Amino acid sequence: MPKRAVASVTQAQSSPSTKRTRSVSKKVDSEDIKPPSSPKKDGNVQKSPNPKEAGPSTTKHARVKKTENANESTSLAAPSGKDHFAPDWVPRNKDIPAGDLHFARPAEDHIRIAIWNITSLKSSDKKGLMKYLKAEDPDVLVISETKYWGIGEKKGYAGIAILSKTKPVDIQYGLPGFQDASSNARMITIQFPHTVIVGTYAVNAGDQLKTLSNKMQWNDALEKHLLNYQGKDVIWCGDLNVVWDDRDLADASKKWNKSAGYTQAECDAHRRVLAATQMQDAWRVLHPDAVGEYTFYGWRGNCRARGSGWRIDSFIASTGAMKRIAACEIRHAIYGPSDHLPMVRNETTHLDCRSSWTSVN
């Protein structure tokens, strides 16, 4: 890759009462780095046997009115056995590792797509955001919760951006059919001749599950949106704000139908979207037996040290996109700039050309 690659930032941000989008061009350094090596899996901090943590992006728990308990539930997402925590090899660091970062490069005929909820562009930039991006050097980057370009009454709200070294043929902001004005700050869809990337910062069911109905409306609109691209290779990715497998969150039995992101309504709705669109969780397909590998560790309650997290970020892929996947990994050591970890997906495609682009009109 050249020393200085130009990437476009396609960004959407809005307040709940305003629908607007903006775009800007930025230069992203891809400096020469030393021969890469894969990060080691380590960590020796003991886990608490009885953690009490908040769910992703929420600090309160509340029961859904008279839902089934875990033992009675017929949902495939319901807790099925022993609660899990991150295994000992997962790092417990609270800051991005010191020194140079090294990641194995994808094969010459492959591209790399990275996703990361950065919590806030302003704060993560001071904690090692660019250090990671220079080392990873993805061909496409989807970042969510940018909290940048606040528009309207609620400043610094949500936000999503896509940076790409290849110019797409079409760009769509927001989620059609979803009436909440925050939609423009939660989704960007970019199209290439044969590939569609849908970057999302999904709606959260909220404190006391107050916005659960909003989440259900989001799922309905999302299903229709994804079905519009049947016949193309579709990659839906980003912060999905849902866990639909008890292996993908710590202390599942204590959170079932209490924590946003792990209620029967949300889990079953998410599974319906996957079934209707015939899409699969790419990471889970490639790691069928993995337990306790999370992408989110809340800053409160010492969750990182205790290995108490959630896997709420992922790549969901259509049948065609699954055939092209070469790898899908969580960057377990990259914690500190955000309370989320980045994920990467390598695949056998060129997105039809590798020319850089500098603006979005």
From TrEMBL:
Gene Ontology CC annotation, any one: nucleus
Segments traversing the membrane: none
Pfam families: Exo_endo_phos
Domain Endonuclease/exonuclease/phosphatase: 116-340
Reported cofactor(s): Mg(2+); Mn(2+)
Site (Transition state stabilizer): 241
Site feature Interaction with DNA substrate, where: 340
Molecular function terms, GO-annotated: DNA-(apurinic or apyrimidinic site) endonuclease activity; double-stranded DNA 3'-5' DNA exonuclease activity; lyase activity; metal ion binding; phosphoric diester hydrolase activity
Note on how the cofactor is bound: Probably binds two magnesium or manganese ions per subunit.
Residues at which Mg(2+) binds: 117, 145, 239, 241, 339-340
Record's keyword terms, sorted: DNA damage, DNA repair, Hydrolase, Lyase, Magnesium, Manganese, Metal-binding
Segments for region (Disordered): 1-91
Record field: compositional bias (Polar residues): 8-18
Ranges of biased composition (kind: Basic and acidic residues): 26-44, 81-91
Family annotation (Gene3D superfamilies): Endonuclease/exonuclease/phosphatase (3.60.10.10)
EC number, UniProt record: 3.1.-.-
Origin superkingdom: Eukaryota
Active site: residue positions: 201, 239, 340
Classification via PANTHER family: AP ENDONUCLEASE (PTHR22748), DNA-(APURINIC OR APYRIMIDINIC SITE) ENDONUCLEASE (PTHR22748:SF6)
Assigned protein family: Belongs to the DNA repair enzymes AP/ExoA family.
Protein name per Swiss-Prot or TrEMBL: DNA-(apurinic or apyrimidinic site) endonuclease
Organism: Malassezia yamatoensis
